[in-house]
Amino acid sequence: MFISENLIQFKKLFAQQLKNMLSPDELGAFILVLANAQQDESLKAILANALQQNFVELKQKYDAGSLQATDDDRLVFQRLLQMDLDALPVWSSRQVAKWQVFYNAIRALRPARVSSERLNRIKSEFDNNKFHFNKAFLKPEILWQGEYEGISLRVLYNKFPFAPYHLIVVASPESAQAQYLTKELHHYIFTLVMNSQHALPGLAMGYNSFGAGASVNHLHFQGFIRDEPLPVESADWSHNGGDKSYPVSCMVFDSAEQSWQWIQDFHEKNQPYNILYRAGRCYLLSRAFQGAVKLPDWLNGCGWLDLAGVMTLSNQHEFETLSSSDIAAGLTLLA
Fold first, then answer.
1. pLDDT tens-digit profile of 82-92?
2. Which residue range is the domain that position 235 belongs to?
3. Which CATH number does the domain housing residue 248 bear?
4. Is the distance from CB of 168 to CB of 134 less than 8 angstroms?
5. pTM (predicted TM-score)
6. Contact residues for 64 (Cβ-Cβ < 8 A; gap 6+)
7. Which residues pair with 168 in a beta bridge?
8. pLDDT tens digit string along 189-219?
9. Is residue 67 one of the residues assigned to a domain?
10. Is residue 25 part of a domain?
11. Quick one: CA torsion of 232, 238, 241, 242, rounded to 10 degrees?
């Protein structure tokens, strides 16, 4: 079993573990729960009272100078103190021609980490001194861990989510592998997504290669639950048999083995890429290195979801005014 036996059980676990995570000594947990609570009104309602109480406790410690936290979390909290948390809106979205745009206000607080650096390679050695998913302070952020089909998995909440029920899925975390995909794990994730559809309909995974929006150099995938097709899945695009050209090079495979041949070629050519794993399908998008071209601010740090046609904005004016031509032009810069 991967996480839960069914979707109802999964959603209950997702909400309950968030509530259980809150502690007067865990600032990082508060930030994570607050960010996840903004996904929709139901989650926000479930978590509102616990979040308010936890905020008061943390502020008291912060004012007294006794709050222990990482530098990243402290900076985020300082910005939260200047905001009206009760007024934070839940995510909203709008369709812009074939694209989808989300307004996610709290995502503006996310530390950029590696995704903001200019890179020219898709492989870098794992560095235990940098942020990774084996850090002890991340233990409260684990949703589920166990063995599935012979491989140990650690599933954490995404601290600043941008997809529904957004998860970080770390395979064999104890091996401390860099963000460089292996054939074994590519086949494994392709099969996991396909075989989980009965229990968790809509489960999908995203992957950013190093140099293509990966913010953490520790081998991981990003899980989410979404029945609705993403823009990249539209039948109108040439990669799906239609007559319209997608702004970024995209190939679609219904076989893990066929797609691996291209991924292996990308590795040999030092070509950055993003992957979307859907049930029985794999969308492989090659793109320019992050930092190699000047992008509009709303597209900086882009990864698998942006290239799949969903833009996440933390500026309300940009959310309301971004046009289809803006999106196509921005993605074309990455071609």
1. 999 988 999 99
2. 91-332
3. 3.30.428.70
4. no
5. 0.95
6. none
7. 156, 222
8. 999 999 999 999 999 999 999 999 998 999 9
9. no
10. no
11. 90
